[in-house]
Write a structure and sequence with these properties.
Layout: E1 4-5, E2 22-31, E3 39-46, E4 49-53, E5 63-66, E6 70-76, E7 86-92, E8 95-101, H1 104-119, H2 130-150, H3 177-186, E9 193-197, E10 204-211, E11 215-224, E12 230-232, E13 238-240, H4 243-253, E14 272-276, E15 283-287, H5 305-308, H6 319-325, H7 333-339, H8 343-363
Antiparallel strand pairs: 1-2, 2-3, 2-8, 3-4, 4-5, 6-7, 7-8, 9-10, 10-11, 11-12, 12-13, 14-15
Length: about 375
């Protein structure tokens, strides 16, 4: 029987009517971690859980698989007696569940719906048609609305539950105890210790994960002291002056076995935007060009105001100073050049000499 997507199916009678909205359903072969053989069951993805029925008409489910303990989902390439069947392994906190879909297309659709419900995001790693992706987007929107409606209103937190912004270490995550365990198991390469809010709303907690024939989780309470600082509540309490010191103390006490959980969130490598086609009005996702923007031409350097002023003229040399600076040697060519009389002056001197000589002669 082919697997069929479900928009919203109203069922009457029994427990099926009390289940969350059904997003997807169809026949699957399922084998749990403690089961020796697979069983062919009608499987319904309702809310954040899978419900299994003996057939499509049953109103009472025989098994329930809560996806809150989801860890990973991967393909199983082992062969089945049905050559068209496609297998996958659903790994949960309490073990692995092996699922067999009728064909490859059905397996991809189940993976898409499971990822959408668990991550509340349409997976981009699957090969699906545009119509199928649109179905997944609708499922994500419905599940988000359902969870918001079911989330109870919390009382305002105690001042002790909100540490100072400057004191929050990078390994702090606003998650619950179960979510912290799933996060550490899903990303073992990012560290094995994270800081989170405590259940009572008045304290913090440190969740750690280590491998010892499987995952071993430990949770440590961290309370804030009235006089300042924090205490790790163990048999011999460990006082710390800050949350950073709390993390450092656990790293030091375990000789570096515990390391802070630092998950690198992915960032987009290109700028994208949505625009409408002018011809058919279809909205499409576009990638902005990655070529660098042209640089503005550089302005010429500003000249210093002092350098823009014209240089002052050197004063004209004083003839007297120049004459005095020349040595008084008669053989000095510069002295002859400066003191040699002009032809007119020389003629006047000769006439004066003749007049003086005539006057002296007449007097004698």
């Amino acid at each position: 029987m082919a697997v069929a997507p479900v928009k919203q199916r109203s069922v009457t009678g029994g427990t099926r009517a009390q289940l969350p909205p059904c997003y997807y359903e169809g026949y699957l072969e399922k084998r749990g971690p403690k089961e020796k053989a697979s069983r062919r069951l009608w499987s319904s993805l309702c809310g954040n859980a899978m419900f299994f029925f003996n057939n499509a008409k049953d109103t009472h489910y025989v098994e329930r698989l809560d996806l809150g303990g989801f860890v990973s989902l991967r393909d199983d390439c082992s062969r089945d007696r049905n050559l068209e069947a496609a297998r996958l392994i659903l790994r949960m906190k309490d073990g692995e569940t092996k699922i067999t879909a009728p064909n490859l297309e059905s397996r991809e659709l189940w993976k898409g719906f499971l990822y959408s419900v668990v991550d509340l995001n349409v997976p981009a790693c699957l090969t699906l048609l545009p119509g199928q992706l649109q179905m997944l987007k609708e499922v994500v929107d419905k599940e988000r609305s359902r969870r918001r409606a079911r989330t109870p209103t919390r009382a305002p937190p105690s001042p002790l539950s909100v540490p100072l912004v400057g004191e929050i270490p990078a390994c702090f995550r606003p998650v619950s105890r179960t979510e912290a365990e799933v996060l550490l198991e899903r990303h073992p390469d990012c560290g094995n210790m994270l800081l989170r809010p405590g259940r009572d709303g008045c304290s913090l907690a440190v969740t750690t994960r280590q491998d010892l024939n499987g995952s071993v989780f430990r949770h440590y309470r961290v309370t804030q002291r009235e006089q300042g600082g924090y205490i790790i509540d163990v048999e011999n309490p460990i006082p710390c002056s800050s949350l950073h010191e709390v993390i450092d103390a656990l790293v030091e006490k375990t000789a570096g076995t515990l390391q802070p959980f630092l998950l690198e969130e992915p960032y987009e490598e290109n700028i994208t935007y949505v625009s409408s086609n002018d011809e058919n009005g279809e909205r499409m996702l576009h990638t902005a060009p990655s070529s660098p923007l042209p640089r503005a031409p550089a302005l010429p350097p500003k000249q210093d105001r002092l350098s823009s002023k014209p240089l002052p003229r050197s004063p004209a040399p004083d003839r007297r100073i120049l004459a005095a600076a020349v040595p008084s040697s008669p053989t000095n060519p510069m002295r002859r050049l400066i003191l040699s009389p002009s032809p007119l002056a020389q003629t006047l001197n000769e006439e004066l000499k003749l007049k003086l000589e005539k006057r002296r002669a007449s007097q004698e």
